[in-house]
Amino acid sequence: MKQRIDKRLEEYDEQNQTNPPFNDAMDHYGKIEGYPTQNLSKVNIQGFPLPIRILGYFFLGTMGVGMIMVLLLTLFK
After folding, report:
1. Which one of 1, 22, 27, 36 has the fewest CB atoms closer than 10 angstroms to its CB?
2. Taken in order 48, 52, 58, 62, is the CA torsion positive or negative?
């Protein structure tokens, strides 16, 4: 637990030193809300709690199957 906290504190310190935010809103998002302001491609999906991940996978899967069904139904109508 302590290692995880120390790692997050180091990441927070590195974030402030490497690239300062370009406005106050992004600074607020990064510090208060935890929004990844530096590189959005590095968002760790595995860091979410299990129920939220399951819900997200369910919605993405439902949308994917729905799009395939709509495509098939329009092709074979």
Report:
1. 1
2. negative
The 10s digit of each residue's pLDDT in 41-52 is 666 667 778 898
Cα dihedral 48→17→40→44 (10° resolution):
-20
Region of 34 please: left (phi>0), alpha (psi -120 to 50) or beta.
Answer: left
Structure tokens at 70: 């709509």
Residues 20-61: tens digit of each pLDDT: 667 777 777 777 776 666 666 666 667 778 898 899 899 999
